[in-house]
Specification:
5-stranded mixed sheet; mainly beta; 5 helices; 35 strands; about 475 residues
């Protein structure tokens, strides 16, 4: 594949070397942590100008590469982690296949990706991915064609990241105008969604004293209307950033100095108040969307090692939480009275009954779907009663799942894709196929335009999951 590089504003090699040095000092290079220079940078106040200087350093050290991919003429969107409605459910128009032949669903394209679990976002015929280039030691934001997987553009910036069960593991958030990514070491970058041009950047570690989580950042950026919601922990539990400019609109208090987890904040409406629910290292909190005020918090739910699944907003003020490390599950109820909010526990579940270690459960038709600690797919009602499981002969490890048109797509650790009837009232497998034969196929799924995008540790694949009639009516698998 041939690439055409856009010229940067650094024509001389000396200028490039200077930019690289700035990036090395300000972007948290491994070697910059030792010596007098590292100590001086580490102690610098990151308010005001310093945040701007970090953003300038990222921009100057970055490379934008224009490639030969072309956006697909395909409708459908999965614009962020868990899709357009943040529920893990696709909004597909074309009928989807309810069975596959022995050849499985058609494979449209396969690409190599850096080690990790980063999932895709899809909008306007483009696929967005935060990747990592080990050779260049750089985060890479990739924009691909949904039609054939060819790169449309790449934006990279240097960040040394050591192998630790992979590197990148987040999902971008995209609108028609902007795409926002969060890299392994908590660098947030906003780019023009069509061209890849730099818009703004924030280093959450240096700006907000965030602590990079064990196994690197797993939180995904949340675009809510005209702002980006991020949970740095440290100096602020959550922050709201203006999407178009990168201006910080508010920061929430963090009285317990909770640290960042792998979970993503989720919006919730209750009694006319919009809030973001976030499980930090010390508990769960509700933050006002308007001004960042701390509306409620509880330490009834916290996981000692790593909080990975995000909250599931279950309606009626209920929030379902689950996780690994013997945490089990919990249903909270947020009560509202006279403008005040408080959280109470409705019930807890033993990890052997119902708990998801890594993936966020899906709420569909008042039922919760998740892969339990023992790898079995399970369905429970909102009172915590398990209605069915897939049985010990049908296990999925830590793999992801997504739903569309009543069909549940479940992936096991090695990349076997299983199609399950989510409305059957029992475990009913409709089809399965060995899509990948790798390992750690844990990246979140994306469903858009009759396509399903999945990955294992080093490869990403796009499948055509429409039924035969839909494919024929729209010109086959293309």
């Amino acid at each position: 594949m041939q690439f055409t590089r856009i010229a940067k504003a650094l024509p001389a090699s000396l200028a490039a070397l200077g930019a690289a040095l700035i990036a090395f000092l300000l972007l948290g290079g491994e070697g910059a942590r030792a010596g007098s220079l590292a100590k001086r940078v580490a102690g610098t106040d990151m308010a005001g100008k310093t945040r701007e200087q970090v953003a300038v350093a990222i921009e100057k050290a970055s490379t934008l590469t224009v490639c030969d991919g072309v956006p697909a003429a395909v409708e459908g969107a999965w614009p962020c982690f868990r899709g357009a409605k943040l529920d893990g459910i696709g909004t597909e128009r074309a009928p989807l296949a309810r069975e596959w032949g022995p050849e499985g669903p058609p494979v449209l394209w396969t690409i190599d990706v850096g080690e990790g679990y980063a999932g895709a976002a899809v909008l306007n015929g483009r696929v967005y991915l935060i990747d990592y280039d080990r050779e260049a030691q750089a985060d890479v934001v990739r924009c691909l064609s949904l039609a054939d997987g060819r790169d449309i553009w790449r934006f990279s910036y240097p960040v040394p990241v050591k192998r630790n069960h992979g590197m990148s593991r987040t999902v971008p958030a995209v609108t028609p105008a902007y795409v926002v990514t969060l890299g392994p070491k908590c660098h947030v970058v906003c780019l023009n969604a069509e061209t890849g041009a730099f818009v703004w950047a924030i280093d959450l570690v240096r700006a907000w004293k965030a602590k990079v989580p064990q196994w690197y950042a797993g939180q995904c950026p949340l675009i809510d209307r005209d702002r980006v919601i991020l949970a740095p922990g440290g100096d602020a539990l959550l922050i709201a950033v203006e999407l178009a400019t990168g201006k910080v609109l508010w920061q929430s208090p963090n009285p317990g100095r909770w640290q960042m987890t792998h979970a993503t904040p989720m919006p919730m409406e209750l009694r006319g108040t919009r809030m973001y629910v976030y499980p930090g290292s010390g508990g769960v909190a509700g933050i006002a969307a308007e001004d960042g005020a701390l509306l409620w918090q509880t330490d009834a739910w916290k996981i000692s090692i790593a909080t990975v699944p995000s909250p599931v907003i279950a309606g009626g003020g209920r929030v379902f939480l689950t996780g690994g490390y013997n945490a089990g599950a919990m249903m909270l109820k947020i009560d509202a009275q006279d403008g005040a909010f408080a959280a109470r526990t409705l019930y807890t579940l033993d990890p052997k009954v119902f708990a998801s270690i890594q993936q966020t459960p899906i709420l569909y038709q008042e039922r919760l779907f998740a892969v339990k600690y023992d790898g079995q797919l399970a369905c429970a009602d909102l009172d915590g009663r398990v209605l069915w499981t897939s049985g010990s002969g049908n296990t999925f490890g830590l793999g992801p799942y997504a739903l569309a048109q009543g069909l549940l797509y479940v992936v096991n650790d090695k990349g076997r894709l299983t199609l399950v009837d989510a409305g059957a009232g029992e475990y009913r497998r409709l089809a399965e196929f060995e899509v990948l034969q790798g390992h750690d196929a844990w990246g979140p799924l994306a469903i858009a335009g009759g396509r399903l995008i999945m990955r294992d540790f080093t490869r990403m694949v796009c499948l055509d999951i429409r039924d035969r009639a839909a494919r024929a009516a729209q010109g086959g698998v293309q």
